[in-house]
Amino acid sequence: MSRFFSLPWLHPYTPGEQPQNRDYIKLNTNENPYPPAPAVRKLLTARDAADLRLYPDPDCRGLKKKLAGLYGLTPEEIFVANGSDDILNFVFWGFPGEKGAVFPDITYGFYKVFAGLHRVPCREIPLNGDFSLNPRDYYHQNSLIVIANPNAPTGLALTPGEIQGILDTNRDSLVVIDEAYVDFGAQSCYPLLSQYENLLVVRTFSKSRCLAGGRLGYAMGSPAVISDLERLKFSTNPYAINRLTLALGEATVAEEAYYREISQKIQKTRKNTENALKGLGFLVLPSLGNFLFARRPGISGENLYQSLKEKAILVRHFPQERIGEYVRITMGTDEQMEQLIAALEEICHENSPD
Ligand SMILES: *Cc1c(COP(=O)(O)O)cnc(C)c1O
Fold first, then answer.
1. 120 within 8 A of 92, measured Cβ to Cβ
2. Which residues are within 8 A (CB) of 198 and not within 5 positions of it... i.e. 6 or more apart?
3. Which of 154, 218, 150, 217 is nearest to 188 (CA)?
4. Which ligand 1 atom lies nearest to the CA of residue 148?
5. C-beta 180 within 6 A of ligand 1
6. What span, in angstroms and rounded, lies between the C-alpha atoms of 109 and 220?
7. Helices (H), 235-319
8. What pLDDT, in 10s, does the model give residues 30-60?
9. pLDDT tens column, 289-326
10. pLDDT tens digits along 165-218
11. Cβ of residue 178 lying under 6 Å from some atom of ligand 1
12. SS3 79
């Protein structure tokens, strides 16, 4: 803390570990195990590097046009930002509801951080005992509503019909659906945009588009909401998305087939891993994300996390009420998952009572 000023009311987000030395099998921050499409990789040429002396397009027109084309929207319905965290920051900053914000008690930890940063009063609505979300808990809220779908770290998802119920009963509130993991098997609610001005769908290139290091996210919403997001961006950092990332993003949108294929591969890996974990006595939530949320009766979440780390495998453990016994395991390549299962076999054996 500096001697000039302190921010005791700030409670920053704790990112998953990003080790820079030891070679870990990294299954802790839901990155994609596969590289970007060949056409995207090819873009990193000397010419693009020379162009770095120029500022990027602050309006991101090229990328917006491509995304609009992909989803049958207009560029005025698309907002582009430096990662979806950036968008969530703007959302809590610019659209605090009449009665603050609501989101589930178990969800992406950054929502609470942004609420605290912008001093938006928030109410965390408890998920059911099985971690499912009851849409009716979100009816008539008069608040900013933020729901990750599929949810993190559980992987459980709502249907567009269930989200429609929330939109119908909150016509005067912004409903933000964070679709960071939607490409791994859940159904997107973006088609509802034509009926609901109060819907904002937030997406990221970090997970299903293999571009976590590029920092790129976008939102789809009504032109009025999008133009307010633009005003916030142009009041802070108009050049937030760099030239290289913009170019990589545009190339990514043109490679839908590649990304659909690897998403399917990851879903297959998820199914196999789920079965293997169950074989070892784990209880596994039915996830539609690129991760599994699981616990092993008799071994604490902290112990699982530490024991795997000693074997050079990183998973995520959240020392938080209700989920402290769980670990969240990102889906890697099939080879990586075989190594994970082998390590867990040993750990289960070491921890067996007899
Ligand atoms: C990973 C993640 C994000 C952040 O994505 P970035 O675009 O990398 O900032 C947002 N929401 C959820 C639910 C996530 O899991």
1. yes
2. 167, 170, 171, 172, 173, 174, 175, 222
3. 150
4. 13
5. yes
6. 22
7. 243-253, 256-279, 301-310
8. 999 999 999 999 988 767 778 889 999 999 9
9. 999 999 999 999 999 999 999 999 999 999 999 999 99
10. 999 999 999 999 999 999 999 999 999 999 999 999 999 999 999 999 999 999
11. yes
12. strand
Tokens in use for 205? 């290139």
Task: Give the residue among 303, 302, 266, 298 at the shortest CA–CA distance from 282.
Answer: 298
Q: Count CA atoms closer than 13 A to 334's CA, side-chain side.
A: 8
Give residue 163's pLDDT band: very low, low, confident or very high (50, 70, 90): very high
| Residue 214 CB–ligand 1 contact under 6 Å | no
**How many Å lie between the centroid of ligand 1 and the Cα of residue 20?**
21
How does DSSP classify residue 196?
-
The answer to whether the Cα torsion of 85, 91, 96, 102 is positive or negative is: negative
Q: Two tokens at 114?
A: 């942004």
How far out from the chain centre does Cα 156 lie? 13
User: Which residue is it, tokens 């002396």?
Assistant: 53
- Whether 202 and 88 have beta carbons less than 8 Å apart is answered as yes
Q: How confident is the model at residue 1 (pLDDT cuts 50, 70, 90)?
A: low
List the structure tokens of 65.
């046009």
Question: Across-strand partners of 336?
Answer: none
Say what percent of the chain tops pLDDT 70: 98
93: three-class secondary structure by DSSP: helix
Q: What is the Cα–Cα distance from 97 to 126, expressed in whole angstroms?
A: 19
Tokens of 216: 């790129």
pTM above 0.90, yes or no: yes
Q: How many CB atoms lie within 10 A of CB 121?
A: 12
- Structure token pair of residue 257: 């087939």
Q: Which residue has the tokens 């979100």?
A: 138
